[in-house]
Amino acid sequence: MKYIIADKGKAADVGFKTEDHRRKGNQILLNEKEVMNNGTLQGTLKQRVKALDGMTYTEKQVIIEINNGGWI
After folding, report:
1. Residue among 70, 60, 72, 59 nearest 32 (CA)
2. What is the rounded CA–CA span in Å between residue 66 and residue 39?
3. Can you give the pTM of this predicted structure?
């Protein structure tokens, strides 16, 4: 499973409820499955992540990011 740290505003614009996800500043943490199942976004995972102004992380990378603090 991959994880995406995306722009919170862009994620909200395509239907993600920000209060249901971890957040840090203007960022939101999403998982690969929910990004791929989003009916508003189109294309490959890479294209969807780009549309969200996001970056893709492995599970290990995202755990390190969360442990660095600031995520609620």
Report:
1. 59
2. 27
3. 0.92
**15, 20, 35, 64 from 11: Cα distances, Å:** 7, 12, 9, 22
Question: Which of 57-70 are b and which e, b meaning 16 or more Cβ less than 10 Å from the residue's Cβ?
Answer: beeeebeebbeeee
CA torsion 30-59-71-7 (nearest 10°) is -40
- 32-36: which pairs have CB atoms within 8 A and are 24 or more residues apart? 32/1, 32/2, 32/3, 32/4, 32/56, 33/1, 35/4
Strands 55-57 and 23-24, sheet pairing:
unpaired
Instruction: Give the model confidence (pLDDT) of 3-28 as tens digits.
Output: 999 999 999 999 999 999 999 999 99
Report the alpha-carbon distance of residue 11 to residue 61 in Å, rounded. 21
